[in-house]
Design goal:
The chain is α+β, with helices and mostly antiparallel strands. The chain has 2 domains: 53 residues, no CATH class; 156 residues, no CATH class. The protein is 18% helix and 28% strand. The chain has 5 helices and 12 strands. It has a 6-stranded antiparallel β-sheet. A 3-stranded antiparallel β-sheet has the order 1-2-3, with no helix packed on it. A 3-stranded mixed β-sheet has the order 7-6-11, with no helix packed on it. Strand 1 and strand 2 form a beta hairpin.
Length: 245
């Protein structure tokens, strides 16, 4: 059997983007104990040969840093909605640190309590909540209605342990890790998961967030069909507008 070669075919149309070498870096390091590093930059001629050797300049270093920065590309996607923004999103600030204000309606929620509170873990109805978070922290308040809040909506203290008088939430040992490429939907879900999947342990600086005994309240609500009694909520001195300023 003999092999008959096929005619030559031009396949350059199937190639991807062609990248030509334009520069090269050579790193030099001293052999001393406290090693010093020196970087030399080469331009490349039309044949791909290194020419014009010189120390790497500050402007060239800045250009290199920008070209290699994956984080810069990802940050452009920070808090970008995956689809049409849902009604519960009230405000988005897609800056470097970034923040979102959103609300959740009253519902049954799984809650976890530390042993010292002597409250069983389980499900209980919670009130509507107003959430305000950035990459580093969370502020939480309660609402008396499931209606979408406005700037004039009065905020109430969130009826939970681990929340300060100003609404700041103590996350304790929870490892909060908000990625720079996270969407607004993933961001809000992540913070709600961080909050509800951690253990409530104590009142903050003696701040009692409700009218009455906080331990007794949750003992009466956990693993029952009881509705959350909105009359125990305590007014804060804030409105939604205060969080926007």
């Amino acid at each position: 059997m003999t092999f008959k070669p096929k005619p030559m075919e031009n396949i350059t149309k199937d190639f991807g983007v062609l990248y030509n070498p334009v520069s090269a870096l050579v790193f030099y390091q001293s052999s001393e104990r406290d090693r010093e590093t020196y970087v030399e930059h080469f331009d490349m001629d039309s044949s791909g040969n290194p020419i014009n050797a010189h120390p790497l300049t500050l402007n060239e270093a800045k250009y290199l840093s920008k070209a290699l920065s994956v984080e810069t590309i990802k940050s452009k996607e920070f808090l970008k909605p995956q689809t049409v923004i849902t009604e519960n999103i009230l405000h988005i600030n897609p800056s470097a640190n970034g923040s979102v204000i959103w609300y959740s309606k009253s519902h049954k929620q799984s809650l976890f309590f530390s042993e010292n509170l002597e409250i069983a873990n389980g499900q209980a109805e919670i009130p509507a909540l107003l959430w305000f978070a950035n990459k580093q922290g969370l502020i939480l308040f309660a609402l008396t209605s499931d209606r979408r809040p406005t700037e004039k909506t009065k905020l109430y203290h969130a009826p939970f342990f681990n929340v300060y008088d100003n609404g700041n939430v103590c996350m304790g040992t929870v490892d909060v890790n908000i990625k720079s490429s996270i969407s607004v939907e993933e961001f809000t879900k992540a913070w709600e998961d961080y909050f509800f999947n951690s253990y409530f342990s104590h009142l903050m600086n003696g701040h009692n967030p409700i009218k009455g005994n906080c331990v007794t309240l949750w003992k009466e609500l956990i693993n029952t069909e009881n509705s959350f009694p909105k009359n125990v909520l305590k007014k804060s001195n804030k409105t939604l507008k205060d969080l926007l300023t």
